[in-house]
Design brief:
Elements (H helix, E strand, L loop, with lengths): L25 H40 L1 E2 L2 E2 L4 H26 L6 H27 L10 H13 L4 H13 L4
Antiparallel strand pairs: 1-2
Helix pairs in contact: 1-2, 1-3, 1-4, 2-3, 3-4, 3-5
């Protein structure tokens, strides 16, 4: 079975004559499923933060070494600002992920997981795009493998609920609409 991200393993499972036991029904089953989804989303948020940080460091290192017009491209304001913005996005995402992990089992855990997921997705997507942009033409070649981060950022963005799912959930919670 082929997948979008070859670094991600997946398979089909078939259970034949396996005994089952119902652990929850109705609203309790929905709440349990949402809690499991939120836990998976927090783990994914940490992976996204790590990927974004790796890309930010790659962009920083390249900007310090690559020269244009006789000076490192990191001396140009537009490059400095992009890397500084990445740093801010990553630290916000990291803080949200740590906060969500600390809220496991609390009444506001799913909301914290939604915040972590949204900010981490934004950080990784932005880091992938900006790192490739900072690297210029070499950023889209196989030489550096930055395209693999872009692919991972896009595949993680849709796992465990996409941005629309988490944004809608968070908006419903903040406005008091039952979700």
């Amino acid at each position: 079975m082929a997948g979008f991200d070859n670094a991600r393993l997946h398979t089909d499972l078939a259970f034949a004559q396996a005994p089952i036991r119902i652990i929850a029904t109705g609203g309790r089953a929905f709440a349990l499923a949402r809690d499991v989804l939120a836990r998976m989303a927090v783990v994914t948020a940490f992976e996204q933060v790590g990927g974004a940080e790796s890309l930010m460091r790659a962009a920083r290192d390249y900007a310090l070494n690559r020269k244009a017009f006789g000076q490192p491209i990191g001396a140009f304001q537009s490059v400095k600002h992009r890397i500084a913005e990445l740093y801010g996005l990553i630290e916000i995402a990291r803080a949200n992920a740590i906060h969500a992990a600390a809220r496991v089992g609390k009444s506001d855990f799913v909301e914290a997981a939604a915040c972590a997921r949204i900010s981490a997705t934004e950080a990784y997507d932005t880091a992938a795009r900006d790192c490739i942009q900072i690297h210029g033409g070499i950023g889209v070649t196989w030489e550096l493998g930055l395209h693999l981060h872009m692919r991972r950022a896009r595949s993680l963005a849709i796992e465990q609920g996409n941005m629309l799912y988490w944004e809608d959930f968070l908006a419903d919670q903040l406005t008091g609409v039952a979700a």
